[in-house]
Amino acid sequence: MIKFSEERLKKVHEIIARYPEGKQKSALIPILHMAQDDFGGWLDAPTMDYVAEILQIKPIEVYEVATFYSMFNTKPVGKYLLEVCRTGPCMLNGSDDIIDYIKEKLDIREGETTADGLFTLKPAECLGACGYAPMMQLGEHFKEHLTKEKVDTLIAELRAKAKN
Amino acid sequence: MAAKVLLKNDHIEGIRYYDTYRKHGGYEAAEKALKMAQADIVEEVKKSGLRGRGGAGFPTGMKWSFLAKPDGVPRHLVCNADESEPGTFKDRYLMEFHPHILIEGLLISSFALGSNATYIYIRGEYAWIVNILEEAIDEAKKAGWLGKNIQGTGFDCEIYVHRGAGAYICGEETALIESLEGKRGNPRMKPPFPAIQGLWMRPTVVNNVETLAAVVPIINMGGEEYAKIGVGRSTGSKLLSVCGNVNKPGVYEIDMTISVEEFIYSDEYCGGIPNGKRLKACIPGGSSVPIVPANLLFKTAKGETRYMNYESLSDGGFATGTMMGSGGFIVLDEDQCIVRHTMTLARFYNHESCGQCSPCREGTGWMYKILKNIEGGKGKMSDIGLLWDIQRRIEGNTICPLGDAAAWPVAAAIRHFRDEFEWHVNNPEESQRRNYGLAHYADPIHVPASA
User: Fold this and answer.
1) Domain co-membership, B256 together with B358
2) pTM, whole model, 2 decimals?
3) Do B241 and A131 touch (CB under 8 A)?
4) Which of B125, B130, B248 to probe by mutation at the A interface, max A CB count within 10 Å?
5) How far A130 CA lies from chain B's nearest CA (Å)?
6) Closest residue of B to A90, CA-based?
7) Are B325 and B282 in contact (CB under 8 A)?
8) Residues B390 and B412 in one domain
9) Where does this protein hold [2Fe-2S] cluster (chain A) (predicted)?
10) Which of B85, B249, B336 comes nearest A131 by C-beta?
11) What is the structure's pLDDT at B354?
């Protein structure tokens, strides 16, 4: 049985209080972000049901939102999700080469996770970093001006981080 | 000319923080506004000629004056920080480095409109900026600019940051409202407009980040003075985010009187094109506005200089002009493939279609597949006509403008670069090895003597 920690529950209620009484459903997206962060990087049915229970809404209201927004993962993903932008402006600056390089380096295809469960490659559409292309989103941060060397360094760092 | 309005303190270290911002004139506009009548603030914004900076360019003062004020019903101001139009990252810059000008603009606007609970809807990917904004809100609150009875006026206002989760469609104001209510981002039918029934069916104004930040200089200098910056109906300053093949990508503030040529080649702005390459095409206002070839960018079809403002960029309509849009300025050099670039945009709009209206849901996917075929050397000549036909049937036939936004880039690419598409179809193998190149796209256009 999953459950937010006391501290996180406090945050959940703080978020709910931002909206008028009876409009607690407005807190759904912010709370789904918290659930995804806390419960393994993706949203399974029990997690979504738990969020529905907190917000006193029907589970289907959570499912339909979780499946609409691209930041919510409804399938398991690796520990590190590499979301490489490939829309126009990034493409002009070589994002296709970066995606190909990651595929080759990690020996996975788009949308796949490495056998060790560390990395998932997910091509993304415009993330708002067009002037600093090519780029990827990694968790809550952007990695910009990517080169093959930067990808090497990043992956080595993440591998080392995962060991500790 | 470079305008120093929103980014006038860009060079000051620590301007992100309240104390520094305040020391450099921050919250003086708020002090002034809180002593004004609410209707007078709206009047100043009207006089300023400020137009919505999100892309549509609708007059802000007029939008504010539509807000219904029924007794006993709360009203809301919502800041649209869902910046997602490919090529656009100006709001990000403003929020990341100048959060207090947005908070001050939000406070003044909330006061003018009577919003006691104001929300910033920010795209989910800008996660770290949520922290920056919340920190700025805390600072402003501690200094007495937010909360209860602000500066003894009796006005209460809270600002909350609400994070989205990755959906371009939520930049459309009614989809944003749906999303803020905890639902899928499906745009609503209008009417009723948000000004009458918006967030939780209450009267709501939704404005872009840059628009709301611009309220600060408008109050500081007065609407009439602000309107003197710029030209014609393109008043004030505009932030532009530059990307693609330029030497100096980034965010620039201009006063809308400079020429497009100067903007691209001056060292003050884009700094020209890297490696001495020549310009092939440009999308000056975010991915949904028409792409224009080099020979229609610096001069209009009439042979007049084209300037960086709403009117000049759209001179010639869609036949030979484009749009100011969101200010997402995308530059393509001679080595870029228009077919491939258009394909990535078609894929983007297909990915971002909410699926509610069939012309957009089906049409965007169909266009993407056809473009992928042509790009991959598997296209037929009839595909080009088919693409034209599909985009024409999407445009104007959807609830929200995403359909138009998806149709226009495809239409403009075929309109101006049809021979590049034909070359791909006729040379399927060669097109996989090399790009079409600059061809004739920078050749001067013959202007009839009578024009």
Assistant:
1) no
2) 0.96
3) yes
4) B125
5) 5
6) B244
7) no
8) yes
9) 85, 90, 126, 130
10) B249
11) 97
A71 interface with B at CB cutoff 8 Å: yes
Hey, CA dihedral for B384, B389, B390, B396, is it positive or negative? Answer: positive
Characterize the bridge pairing of strands B76-81 and B117-122: parallel
Q: Which residues of A touch B162 (CB under 8 A)?
A: 18, 26, 29-30
**Helix ranges, B186-279 (H):** 209-221, 223-228, 260-265
Residue A32: list chain B partners with CB under 8 A: 165
- Same domain membership, residue B187 and residue B159: yes
Order of strands across the sheet with B292-293? B250-254, B238-244, B328-333, B279-283, B292-293
Q: Are residues B122 and B170 in the same domain?
A: yes
According to the model, what pLDDT value does residue B448 have?
61
Size of interface A-B (CB pairs under 8 A): 145
ipTM reported for the complex, 2 dp: 0.97
- With a cut of 50, say whether residue B451 has pLDDT above it: no
Q: Are residues A51 and A30 in the same domain?
A: yes
Angle of CA points B308, B12, B258, to nearest 5°: 10
Q: What is the pLDDT of residue B264?
A: 97
How far apart CA B134 and CA B159 sit, in angstroms, is 9
**Is the domain of A23 the same as that of A86?**
no
A18 and A89 belong to one structural domain: no
* In-domain check, residue B445: no
Give pLDDT tens digits for B151-179.
999 999 999 999 999 999 999 999 999 99
Distance to chain A for B348, nearest Cα, Å:
6
Q: Per the CB < 8 Å rule, is B344 touching A86?
A: yes
Q: Which of the listed residues B174, B200, B228 is the one where a domain comes to its end?
A: B228
Tokens representing A159 are 């591998």
Q: pLDDT tens digits, residue range B44-86? A: 999 999 999 998 889 999 999 999 999 999 999 999 999 999 9
- Asked if the model's pLDDT at residue B450 lies above 60, the reply is no
Quote the CA–CA distance of B380 and B387 in Å, as a whole number. Answer: 11
Average pLDDT rounded to a whole number, residues B216-220: 97
Q: Residue B220's closest CA among B11, B6, B57? A: B6
Q: What mean pLDDT comes out for the span A119-129?
A: 97
Which residues neighbour B284 within 8 Å (Cβ) at sequence distance 6 or greater?
B260, B292, B297, B308, B313, B322, B323, B324, B325, B329, B330
Rounded Cα–Cα distance for residues A28 and A35 (Å): 10
Q: CB contact, 8 Å: A152 with chain B? A: no
Would you state the torsion angle of the CA atoms of residues B210, B215, B220, B224, taken in this order, to the nearest 10 degrees? 110
The verdict on A63 touching B (C-beta cutoff 8 Å) is no
Does residue B395 carry a pLDDT above 80?
yes
Alpha-carbon span B25 to A86, nearest angstrom: 41
Q: Mark the binding-site residues of A for [2Fe-2S] cluster, compressed into ranges.
A: 85, 90, 126, 130
Q: Are B66 and B195 in contact (CB under 8 A)?
A: yes
CATH number of the domain encompassing residue A42: 1.10.10
- The C-alpha atoms of residue B184 and residue B174 are separated, in whole angstroms, by 11
Q: Does A111 lie in the same domain as A150? A: yes
Cβ within 8 Å, pair A33-B83: no
What's the number of domains chain A is made of? 2
pLDDT, one tens digit per residue, over A11-25 is: 999 999 999 999 999
Count CA atoms within 13 Å of residue A30 on its CB side. Answer: 26
